[in-house]
Amino acid sequence: MPIHNKLVRDRILEIIDQSGKKYSSRILDEREYEEEVRKKMNEELAEYEAAQNDEEALEELADLLELIHAAAAIHGADFNELEAIRQQKAEKRGGFSERIFLIEVEDD
Q: Which positions are tagged coiled coil (predicted)?
């Protein structure tokens, strides 16, 4: 039996049940959950970086977005609050759409 030891989506156990396979699982405490969400974000980011086409990239971005929703809740916010913070930062400092790559800044 393969050992996974990782955070999985909420319906994965149901899907495994439907396949007739056996599994073991447990519910994480709050500290473990936050740690595993962070690990899963890194896993999904690596998968996004390895994506070979737009379809794969979008699938991985959707996974990252799901994890961002989870992380926002861990930190006491919902996605709307997170989006408001993003918008404030974009208004103050801009976004990334202009593709600016800073090479260096002269020291005083």
A: 31-68
